[in-house]
């Protein structure tokens, strides 16, 4: 019997070929590690560029006012807590805690209004068939394309005729009337991803739309509700133009307006206190996000389980 040796066997039994194979694998390994190292260096560089302004703001809150303007140095030459003492003392005869409470009232009320009104509206568009539903849906989507500045004057005229200027109603009424089309659209898309078998099972048990929404759909909407709540809270807390337009009494000012009070182009500006106030204004937003982050992550993790 003739013994035949294949080409593969020759390659695997040749020591020089094995050394070349190990050399190729080693080269690929070095190239992979080199690419990973370059990627991580670039990622860290981008992260430093993005976080540097925030770090500068934090460190500037501990600097005297004369060291803030015209300096990009991160480490303060003179470390001081006077800026925080000035911020806690308030400004214009209004205490710091008044600004905090006013902002919390608007932010929490905005979250409640968005969750209640937008969830109901989204259920109606996603699950109830009624005449003109597609037209109303298109009109709602069209409002997302309108710049906010287009409707400022008509809204101000309406609220002025209703004697609502210098109240919180102009800032909250739209939240309770599902005027935020973004949140409505977000919840509509989420509800459409839920199986209709749940609705049919509820109807077989004798549940109407109200019972189906509250007992079946609403508990499953927690990821969308948490996401909407986070955005509604942050947007309301950071809103500057709305309170500036409708609020006239300094005792009703929010944190963004309080930050503006420390900067005056006609007199002395306290940039140190403004930086300290900005840091204090970030604390509730960060705490709110951290409190609901686990629900948001859990919702994203179970998103693919619907079917």
UniProtKB/TrEMBL annotation:
It is a multi-pass membrane protein. It comes from the Bacteria. Residues 1-13 have a biased composition (Low complexity). Residues 1-28 are annotated as: Disordered. Residues 100-292 form the ABC transmembrane type-1 domain. PROSITE patterns: ABC_TM1 (PS50928). Keywords: Cell membrane, Membrane, Transmembrane, Transmembrane helix, Transport. Its main location: membrane. The keyword Transmembrane applies. Pfam families: BPD_transp_1. The chain crosses the membrane at residues 38-59, 104-126, 135-157, 169-191, 212-237, 271-292. InterPro entries: MetI-like, MetI-like_sf. It is found in: Cell membrane. Belongs to the binding-protein-dependent transport system permease family. PANTHER family: ABC TRANSPORTER PERMEASE PROTEIN MG189-RELATED-RELATED, ABC TRANSPORTER PERMEASE PROTEIN YESQ-RELATED. This is Carbohydrate ABC transporter permease. It comes from Microbacterium plantarum. The lineage of its organism: Bacteria, Bacillati, Actinomycetota, Actinomycetes, Micrococcales.
